[in-house]
Amino acid sequence: MIDAAIAEDQTFNDPTTAALVPPQIRGVGILRAKAAGVLAGVEVGMAVFRRVEPELELDALMADGATLAPGDDIARVAGPAGGILRAERIALNFMQRMSGIASLTNRYVRAIEGSRSRIVDTRKTAPGHRYLDKYSDNHIEANRFREMGLRQVIELALERASHTIRVEVEVETLEDAQEALDAGAHIIMLDNMPVEMMREAMGFIGDQAVVEASGGINFNTVRDVASTGVHLISIGELTHSPPALDISLDLEFE
């Protein structure tokens, strides 16, 4: 991913840096938070600088998961100034996106404190970024296989899947939820169900399968969804439209 980002940015074809920053000029750059949030992507950012300019001295001052306040120094980069400038935008792109996801996730987690539900993400990721954005489960959508019979599809998936794979079934009705449960699905996703219908589904599913609520859930509704007792709440916003966390690089020439 880093090499692809470097190629896309045409990092080594930067005429401005080549013209204005001779190779012998050195500098010190500080990666600094400009907004409050949760830090993620430090090692990825450092790897970008290392890949673009191996001579750089890198010092991460904070670790992933740290709580950021405006003005916090995140990392120090020292060495050839041209290398720092060429790597800056790519490193910041990774760190701002990853920290934005971490910060938004933290807000949702705090919103359901005291419930048994856990916040999870979805497959709605940026192209090429899924490895950094999330990990996926095996997933069956009931509506796509209705002609074959939902129970038959689930049983076939369970038969053919590795023992390490969990079979998840997406349902929109209580009838499909019951059928998925009877067929032995490991995870039942309640998709776009009203809260009261979720509550009814939990009444007969209980802890016989992991239940995930999904579809249009936001800060205004997440607490009500958690009150139904579902095990997981998936939030598409976490990966399809997270606000980037503002992080800058301040560079001083030596």
Automatic annotation (TrEMBL):
<feature type="domain" description="Quinolinate phosphoribosyl transferase N-terminal">
    <location>
        <begin position="14"/>
        <end position="99"/>
    </location>
</feature>
<dbReference type="InterPro" id="IPR002638">
    <property type="entry name" value="Quinolinate_PRibosylTrfase_C"/>
</dbReference>
<dbReference type="GO" id="GO:0009435">
    <property type="term" value="P:NAD+ biosynthetic process"/>
</dbReference>
<dbReference type="Pfam" id="PF01729">
    <property type="entry name" value="QRPTase_C"/>
</dbReference>
<keyword id="KW-0662">Pyridine nucleotide biosynthesis</keyword>
<dbReference type="GO" id="GO:0034213">
    <property type="term" value="P:quinolinate catabolic process"/>
</dbReference>
<protein>
    <recommendedName>
        <fullName>Nicotinate-nucleotide pyrophosphorylase [carboxylating]</fullName>
        <ecNumber>2.4.2.19</ecNumber>
    </recommendedName>
</protein>
<comment type="pathway">
    <text>Cofactor biosynthesis; NAD(+) biosynthesis; nicotinate D-ribonucleotide from quinolinate: step 1/1.</text>
</comment>
<comment type="subunit">
    <text>Hexamer formed by 3 homodimers.</text>
</comment>
<dbReference type="Pfam" id="PF02749">
    <property type="entry name" value="QRPTase_N"/>
</dbReference>
<dbReference type="InterPro" id="IPR027277">
    <property type="entry name" value="NadC/ModD"/>
</dbReference>
<comment type="function">
    <text>Involved in the catabolism of quinolinic acid (QA).</text>
</comment>
<dbReference type="GO" id="GO:0005737">
    <property type="term" value="C:cytoplasm"/>
</dbReference>
<dbReference type="InterPro" id="IPR022412">
    <property type="entry name" value="Quinolinate_PRibosylTrfase_N"/>
</dbReference>
<feature type="domain" description="Quinolinate phosphoribosyl transferase C-terminal">
    <location>
        <begin position="101"/>
        <end position="250"/>
    </location>
</feature>
<dbReference type="InterPro" id="IPR037128">
    <property type="entry name" value="Quinolinate_PRibosylTase_N_sf"/>
</dbReference>
<comment type="similarity">
    <text>Belongs to the NadC/ModD family.</text>
</comment>
<dbReference type="GO" id="GO:0004514">
    <property type="term" value="F:nicotinate-nucleotide diphosphorylase (carboxylating) activity"/>
</dbReference>
<dbReference type="InterPro" id="IPR004393">
    <property type="entry name" value="NadC"/>
</dbReference>
<dbReference type="InterPro" id="IPR036068">
    <property type="entry name" value="Nicotinate_pribotase-like_C"/>
</dbReference>
<dbReference type="InterPro" id="IPR013785">
    <property type="entry name" value="Aldolase_TIM"/>
</dbReference>
<keyword id="KW-0808">Transferase</keyword>
<keyword id="KW-0328">Glycosyltransferase</keyword>
